[in-house]
Amino acid sequence: MKKGEIYQGIIERVEFPNKGIVQIEDKKVIVKNGMPGQHVKFMINKKKGSKVEGRLLEVLEHSYLETRKPVCSIFPECGGCMYQTMSYENQLEMKAKQIQSLIDQAVKAGGQVDEQGNPDYIFEGIKGSPREFAYRNKMEFSFGDAYKDGPLTLGLHKKGSTYDVLNALDCKLVHQDMNEILKCVLEYCQEQGYDYYHKMQHVGFLRHLLLRRGNTTGEILVNLVTTSQVEADFEELKDRLLSLTLEGKIVGFLHIINDALSDVVKSDEMRILYGKDYFYEEILGLRFKITPFSFFQPNSYGAEVLYETAREYIGDTKDMTVFDLYSGTGTISQILAAVAKEVIGVEIVEEAVLAAEENARLNGIGNCRFIAGDVLKVLDGIQEKPDFIVLDPPRDGIHPKALPKILEYGVEKMVYISCKPTSLARDLEMFLEKGYRVEKVCCVDQFCQTVHVETVVLLSYKKPDGHINVKVEFGEGEGKVPLDNIAKRAESYKPKERVTYKM
Question: CB burial class (10 A; 0-12, 13-18, 19+) of residue 25?
């Protein structure tokens, strides 16, 4: 096989996250963006040793799993969805198998096997989202064009493309309110003749439309992200937005200036054009204030399932000090606060920590403390020792230098919540190496129609054989212990654990 060659084949299975496996004679080729059973045409675009990757060119025959019609106008070209023509039941089954395979490999590599050599832990399957569509409470839409020098578009990137942006006027992952707002903003910007930001040339005005909508409250925050290259007055756009007929209510319209060279949604300056720069969302009876860049689970309905599962895995934390590492806006911390002595949350994003503190006050919770900083550094300065640890790291998992510090606490149980199972599987090998074992695992699907899934893992630690090694010096001189006194002293010492005396 050589780069540029074109082949055809059937995707036999899909490994996490979206690696379709096509067998061509004795070669295994990874073809992304497909689903099991599809007959596809692809071009070899990467080859390194025995590893071969192909770029999907065309689906020649649909999969036997594609049992329903697309629900939006730009599927399958749009990169926002992957599996909407597959039944939700089959999506869940496929994701569960993908994650179980990854955890199995990690557990076996760590030597946690039964007498037959099989992975020795409980896999509890997958829990679906209460809503399959219109579940996202946050969406970052991009400005661009669908083809080079085409008309202005606003929506989601074309599958496999860094540049082409498709109009997502009928996206089904979000509430219809968001689609109405997107359409209004796009039409206004087209009328004004605004150009989008060209990433390679670093010129242009429009960058992103960041929309956030409380699933339970219906409150909407509209954030228009541009460069500073044009001075614009959005008063008319504000009036148009506020006159829209929506199920929810726009509580804030913000103009965010971002002159960063990289294609990220961030703020150099924020201008409030209407209302306020936050909205509220409710989960499990708690109320949370959310700002434009606050981390918050993008599926509030699925988040309740996720946190209920985590709470079940955590169990009884009465009179315990709990560390919530990578705590975000403190959702887990506040859920645990009612059944713990104290919860200490650590989060690197200072804005999220401020939001967590405010949310705790909002919910009348007094036994949560939040610290802004990198887990790697903050742990050195915390005097308290945890009885339980909850981990909910970003997609890349736990920093390799932070993980040993976490393991040094030697707590009997931990719960690890992961949004990227490959990072989780990597970290689990270190846990197993240091004496932890995987007790049980459950997946929670917060990202229906996509390749992503959350995973909750309960880990337990059994301290080594219970021996305490005591170094005893004996002989003559001050502070020395005569040898014939050792037996008497050993008899009078009644430790809770067995003692080994080495001389």
Answer: exposed
The pair of structure tokens assigned to 190 is: 């087209």
Within 10 A of 369 (CB to CB), how many other CB atoms are there? 17
Task: List Cα–Cα distances, 102 to 124, 267, 391, 422, 435, in angstroms.
Answer: 14, 37, 19, 7, 20
| Pairing assessment for the beta strands 219-226 and 249-257 based on DSSP bridges | parallel
Fold (CATH) for 138-283 = OB fold (Dihydrolipoamide Acetyltransferase, E2P) (2.40.50)
Q: Which residue blocks in 315-401 are alpha helix, DSSP H?
A: 331-337, 350-362, 375-378
Out of 171, 189, 419, 442, pick the active-site residue: 419
Tokens (6 digits) for 171: 């996206």
Q: Are 277 and 254 in contact (CB under 8 A)?
A: yes
Q: Active-site residue 419, yes or no? A: yes
Domain positions in the chain are 6-61, 138-283, 468-502
Cβ(380)–Cβ(354) below 8 Å: no
Of 454, 418, 409, nearest to 436 by C-alpha is 409
3-state secondary structure of 226: strand
Strands 27-32 and 165-167: unpaired
pTM of the model: 0.87
> How far apart, in whole angstroms, are the C-alpha atoms of residue 154 and residue 207?
9
In the DSSP assignment, the letter for residue 63 is -
pLDDT averages per 10-residue partition of the chain, 503 residues: 93 94 93 95 91 94 96 93 95 97 95 94 97 96 95 94 94 97 98 95 96 96 97 96 98 97 89 96 92 88 95 92 93 90 93 91 94 94 94 92 94 96 95 95 96 97 60 47 47 44 41
Topology of the domain comprising 6-61: OB fold (Dihydrolipoamide Acetyltransferase, E2P) (2.40.50)
For 59, 60, 264, 332, the CA distances from 86, given in Å and listed in that order, are: 15, 17, 31, 32
Residue 437, helix vs strand vs coil:
strand
Structure tokens at 321: 């000090």
Q: Under a CB-based contact definition with an 8 Å cutoff, are residues 385 and 379 in contact?
A: no
Are 120 and 138 within 8 A, CB to CB? no
E strands, 25-169, in order: 27-32, 39-48, 51-61, 122-127, 138-145, 152-157, 165-167
Between CA 290 and CA 358 the distance in angstroms is 10
Strand-strand pairing, 413-418 and 165-167 = unpaired
| Element holding 26 (H helix, E strand) | none
